[in-house]
Design goal:
Layout (H helix, E strand, L loop, with lengths): L1 H28 L20 E4 L4 E3 H6 L3 E7 L7 H15 L8 E6 L7 H10 L6 E6 L1 H10 L19 E5 L4 E5 L5 H9 L26 H10 L18 H4 L2 H9 L1 H6 L3 H9 L12 H24 L1
Parallel strand pairs: 3-4, 4-5
Antiparallel strand pairs: 1-2, 1-5, 3-6, 6-7
Helix pairs in contact: 3-6, 7-12, 9-12
């Protein structure tokens, strides 16, 4: 009797093991799940256009890039002299904060709106200049397809001309295709808020306690100023003040190292100064991988406030370093 019971128990255990192995294999081989039934934001909505990434790989927008994924999508062009490089720098900062999750459960796509110029090779060089990590694809394709995609994603109005490159929409589209949740955001938003949205809220996850920073580690809040705001929203993705070079030079003591009038003009219209082949501008351009400083369309008041902030911060940091 005991032997029969033991044999029966072994058979049950074996069946249970085979059952769970079968489930595991089924899950492993299951196709990526798309938008839930009834969602308007699924395969019937998104155009499944052909695109080519910076490595020359052909992909389909819906099937290969967004189906079942959490994604961040923006539109750029590499010849942009205004805000594209700033937006790419901000997105690079966001990628650094998300870490190795980019390419595993978060995917970033920058799609050119100037496919005639931005070949895969040009996009690859552009990505390398910014030092982007894996998981972020730069894509090109047919102009008509990309225009259709921009309109479907709400980043080009139905009456807006597609060929006005400098006036393109700078918003990023953040979405989870599997849940049908989508939102447009600005890369000028607080980076930690964007990380929370992309890495946790879009995936219905809670941030683990070990990932949350202590309030004791928070920086002391400084007096708010126009210059402070401008530096943190326009400059900090590329520059530091006293923490070393980034995509651009460290700006510690820049107000004492550069002629004031030159610095004012460089911040106000860097594209014009560079086009004039100014020797300092050319040297900076060569040193920092030929990344052009964007024209941020700042007013004279903005430029003066930014220079004042750089001067005060340099003085504070230098004084603090000397007292140590």
């Amino acid at each position: 009797m005991m032997r029969k019971s033991l044999v029966g128990l072994l058979r049950l255990n074996l069946l249970a093991i085979l059952f769970f192995i079968g489930i595991a294999l089924a899950l492993e081989s299951a196709p990526t799940r798309g938008a839930p039934p009834g969602s308007p934001w699924g395969a019937d909505y998104f155009p499944n256009i052909n695109l080519v990434n910076q490595d020359g790989k052909n992909v389909r927008f819906y099937d290969d890039l967004i189906k079942g994924k959490v994604v961040v999508i923006n539109f750029i062009f590499t010849n942009c002299k205004l805000s594209c490089s700033l937006e790419t720098a901000r997105l690079r900062h966001l990628q650094a904060l998300l870490g190795d999750r980019v390419g595993s459960d978060v995917f970033i796509y920058s799609i050119t709106i100037d496919p005639a110029h931005d070949t895969p090779a040009v996009l690859k060089e552009y990505a390398e200049k910014f030092g982007v990590a894996p998981g972020w694809q730069f894509l090109t394709g047919k102009e008509a397809d990309i225009t259709l995609l921009r309109r479907k994603l709400g980043l080009l109005g139905s009456q807006d001309p597609a060929d006005q490159l400098d006036n393109h929409n700078l918003s990023v589209l953040v979405g989870n295709e599997a849940t049908g949740r989508w939102t447009k955001r600005s890369l000028g938003d607080n980076s930690q808020v964007l990380v929370s949205l992309i890495g946790y809220q879009m995936q219905n996850k809670r941030m683990q306690s070990q990932e949350q920073k202590s309030y004791a580690d928070a920086r002391e809040i400084q007096g708010f100023s126009r210059g402070n705001y401008l530096f943190n929203t326009r400059c900090s993705s590329c520059h530091t003040i006293g923490a070393g070079d980034g995509l651009g030079p460290d700006l510690l003591q820049v107000t004492s190292q550069r002629d004031r009038d030159w610095l004012f003009r460089w911040i106000k219209e860097p594209d014009v100064v560079l086009a004039e082949k100014d020797p300092i501008a050319l040297a900076l351009y060569q040193k920092f991988k030929e990344l052009s400083m964007p024209n941020l369309q700042l007013s004279d008041i903005d430029v003066a406030a930014l220079i004042d902030y750089l001067e005060k911060q340099s003085r504070l940091i230098t004084s603090s370093n000397e007292s140590k």
